[in-house]
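Sequence in, structure out. Go.
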Amino acid sequence: MKSGVTLWIDQGAVLAAVSDPYAYDRGSGRCGTIDDKGKGCRPFIQFDGTYGGGIVGDGAIDGRGGETMAGRSETWWQLARRAQAQQGKQNNPRLIEVDNARDITFYRITLRNSPNFHAVLNGVTGATFWGVRIDTPADARNTDGIDPGASQDITIARSFIRTGDDNIAIKAGNGPTRHVSIVDDHFYWGHGVSIGSETNAGVSDILVRDVTLDGTASGLRIKSDASRGGAVSGVLYENICLRNNKKPIDFDTRYDDKAQGSAIPVYSNIVLHNVTARNGALVIHGYDGAHPLSIAFDGVRFGRNVIWQVKNAKLSAGPGGVTPPVPEIAGPTVTDGAIYDCDARWVAFPVAKGLRGDLSPAPNSQMPHARTRDTAILTVGPGKTYDTVQAAADAAKPGDTILIQPGTYREVVHLRTPNLRVAGDGNNADDVVIEADRSARESGGTARSATVFAEADGIEIRQLTIANRFHDRNPGVTEGAQAVALSATGDHQRFVDLRLAGWQDTLYAGSHGCTTAQACKPARQYYQDDVIEGAVDFVFGDALAWFERTQLHGIDRPQVTITAQSRRYPGQPSGYMFHDCTVTADPSVKTISLGRPWQDYATVNYVGCRLDGRVLPQGFTEWQGERRLPTARYLIANASGLGADSKDREPWLLKADATALTSLSSPDSFFNAAE
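Output:
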């Protein structure tokens, strides 16, 4: 980038990074490898010594960290995980790097899927991030959101960040960082708002105000150690709402217990004003008695289930006090009093400009998403409060979170509580597995054979595997062999980073049913970054479902059929949208059908998907013994891959014209058009 130049990325446009390590290599041939330094790659976009300009627009910059590297067998993120296991450093490119620059602006842009950090500032004076969205999977290692380092006069405002590491990390390794304002922001999965771990040159004058941290592992975090510590002072956290965090407060001067050196971290003049958290661990660890951590609490309210972990700290309380009281505190504490109101502050992550693509209701909605009670985290696992997922589900109230520890849970689970959040507590979806092996014949029908039933509205499930192993254990059975892994039948449901494993009828994405022939209940569902595998009709039902970046993988059959959609009548709010998906199959598979119509008006769209070369030339196939293709609504548009050739597509396929694609440009437009 040059001085005074602004890159504008318009709404709907995506600037996509190539996945070739040689394109980023600094000349050593190390990019895309593991070594002990991790500095072998240039960034995708760089500002170096520039003045003015920036990046704006409602489009996106996609680092494609989940794509397989050219000439390699793994993705950037898989390389990062392998480096972690080998105790090395991955050479992955950052998405944006700003070095020794002044007055740079980032406005409304979406950054996603970086192979490494998303936006890094070094030696910057004056930078503004306003209305920025950063959206990357929770298990994408070392994908910090925004990292101001050795910089000053930085503003991060009205932005939304969910990523695989620190949502924000303020660093001071090469120079002091000061005058940073983080205001009116919302953070979701990630490691929280962090200062450190490099604070060598000092961090001061930091304001974090009007911020929500919803589901971050840590919330407010300061981390350092004796090898890279320094003075951190003048930090104000004000009007902060935290929920579903393991460590809402995480101030640790011994971040690496093995680190040695004389750069002792010293934290002082840190104030928490109007901070609310319901549960989790509160970690406040000063370095030693001579270097205590100094914090003042004023109007701070924590739930009764919080766990204080305090040592080498000098704590005080202002007029608003702190609840529950801390034994180590000096000054007044309170046990009653008004709690800073967070109920109206929670907002869902905006997946597109001005839209509620994540299916959250409008603020005045009568849906039961509004939380009027303290929510709880119910932990499942050996030695935890609940031994089974079903036991936790039976005890849960609307709005609660079920957190499942790594392991395999052999059970059938019914989720009947509205607005329940279920999440695996591992590093990826494979760490937590819920499995059963029931079939339609023994269960009394396909609809009753599922391993997990998501029955209530507002349910969210993320980062785990749901499997039905019936075919694995009974490979010769074909009669009554339908065996569902996940049955999703509610409205406003979300399923993120799941692996759904089965053979015939893996995922039922359907509705609660129809009261009459032309009165079916809506079931709006959103699926993101999921892997779904099967052989026969393995995504089926009549939900109105958007599948974002889904991998559809065929297994164990000469011809596999992916979908069996069952829209019953033209006006039914029903249909499947696969956007930016990938269609693959095992080597044993000869041909792939993208779907067949279970009902007369079956509706399935594949837009921007990468199609395996074994996809049939006609794309879709007829339901056996019926003639439903002429009334079905099937669309393939903007496809890539060896199976993208459309010259032999059947004439009943919808034309990919502007009118058709306008209603498929985002989850909200898709849902609204169907309604």
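Check: The two ends are 44 Å apart (CA to CA). The mean pLDDT is 87.
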